[in-house]
Specification:
The structure is a single chain. By secondary structure, the chain is of the alpha/beta class. The protein has a single domain, classed as Alpha-Beta Barrel (TIM Barrel), CATH 3.20.20. Helix content is 50%, strand content 12%. It is built from 16 helices and 9 strands. It has a 7-stranded parallel sheet with strand order 1-4-5-6-7-8-9. Helix 11 links the parallel strand 5 and strand 6. The protein is globular and about 55 Å long. The two termini are 20 Å apart. The relative contact order is 0.14. The mean pLDDT is 97. The structure holds coproporphyrinogen III. The site of coproporphyrinogen III has 21 residues, from strand 3 and strand 4.
Length: 345
């Protein structure tokens, strides 16, 4: 077993553990009344992200309530452009807003600003680790270059990431410069999180699923591969979970070319494919449809049991296929955790 009996870390490092360790993407969030209370105390969403005391508090809330096997640093993938010099704001009920960047303006962004601007995040990582039970794995994270770039270029969330896809297709050299900068910044950011006490890191490529296979190779596989390689050059012990949401048939290639230690699966990935093609190479994480948690009852139980039956023999980290939504019932989440923990082979 991995250090201090950290089950989730053990799975990432190569062991099969049953019942599998469990955590939930966006486990600290609006479905929890205690999160909403701390969020109100902080003021704006970014004020919460940059306040080490309150970020620590919301990170620990789901651990206290459910005893998850991992805590994930409370922050957001968009602190990256904010740190680089493209300010981000979160308008109430509107999601993130940025002044869109043009590819000929990328030279203005400065990766060396990360250390100072994101110092409160590193402080939060250290303070979370100090308060966390020894057996709980601490995850750091960043957004993948492609996914972060979709917000930098559009200035907001879009239904199909059209603005970033256009930019990448029409000016690949300019787009490459933005990717290079984000790779360098992400390596630096993740290395600092590991130094501050993160056991492993997850790279969120939430919009990986909108690219054709040529563009997927360039803007998803290659930047993720370079982050893994760059991070391991600085921190040989670094453990990395990749989450290329929507990658579908390109998952196998993603796993073999990036060298991630674990791969996050969205709920559309067939369990037989995950078992036969992915699990022999890497640990898999996922992939319950979040809607099954909203419904609870039979839809949730059937989803949990299938994942455990199909993937429970190998290296599995139980999770949802994407973040939990604000309409989830905290009691249903409790029943999800109980069912996974009560499972027997
Ligand atoms: O998983 C966790 O508990 C850690 C915290 C975390 C947040 N965002 C908190 C958050 C993590 C890992 C993220 C990642 C993130 N942020 C992603 C990638 C993962 C994914 O869900 O696809 C993306 C694309 C973002 C960008 C982002 N942040 C958007 C589009 C929004 C607005 C949509 C929304 O859900 O409101 C956010 C805001 C955000 N990030 C909230 C939380 C808890 C809600 C803000 C609030 O409390 O008002």
């Amino acid at each position: 077993m991995a250090r201090e009996g950290r089950k989730l870390l053990a799975v990432i490092e190569g062991e099969s553990v049953f019942p599998p360790p469990i955590w939930i993407m966006r486990q600290a969030g609006r479905y929890l009344p205690e999160y909403r209370a701390t969020r109100a105390e902080a003021g704006g969403f970014l004020d919460l992200c940059y306040n080490p005391r309150l970020a620590t508090e919301v990170t620990l809330q789901p651990i206290r309530r459910y005893g998850f096997d991992a805590a994930i640093l409370f922050s957001d993938i968009l602190v990256m452009p904010d740190a680089l010099g493209q300010p981000v704001r979160f308008a109430e009920g509107e999601g993130p807003l940025l002044d869109p960047i043009r590819l000929d303006e990328v030279g203005r962004l400065d990766p060396s600003r990360i250390d100072a601007h994101l110092a409160p995040v590193f402080e939060a990582v250290a303070s979370i680790r100090a308060k966390l039970p020894a057996e709980t794995t601490l995850l750091g994270f960043c957004g993948a270059p492609w996914t972060v770039a979709t917000y930098m270029i559009a200035g907001r969330g879009t239904p199909d990431q059209g603005p970033a896809r256009r930019a990448a297709l029409s000016d690949p050299e300019g787009f490459q410069r933005l990717m290079d900068l984000l790779v360098e910044a992400s390596v630096r950011y993740l290395a600092r999180q590991i130094e501050a006490g993160a056991d492993a890191v997850q790279i969120f490529d939430s919009w990986a699923g909108v690219l054709d296979d040529l563009e997927f190779g360039r803007w998803v596989v290659e930047p993720n591969r370079r982050i893994v390689e760059g991070l391991r050059a600085l921190k040989p012990e670094a453990r990395v979970i990749g989450f290329p949401k929507g990658a579908g048939a390109m998952l196998e290639d993603y796993v073999s070319r990036t060298g991630v230690d674990a791969v996050g699966l969205d709920w559309t990935v067939p369990l037989s494919y995950a078992r036969d093609r992915l699990q022999p190479r890497t640990a898999v994480q996922g992939n319950l449809d979040p809607l099954r948690v909203i419904l609870g009852g039979r839809p949730m139980e059937e989803g949990i049991d299938r994942i455990l039956a199909e993937l429970g023999q190998g290296r599995l980290i139980f999770n949802l296929g994407h973040g939990i939504t604000p309409d989830a019932d905290p009691e249903t989440v409790g029943r999800l955790v109980e069912r996974v923990r009560a499972a027997r082979r």
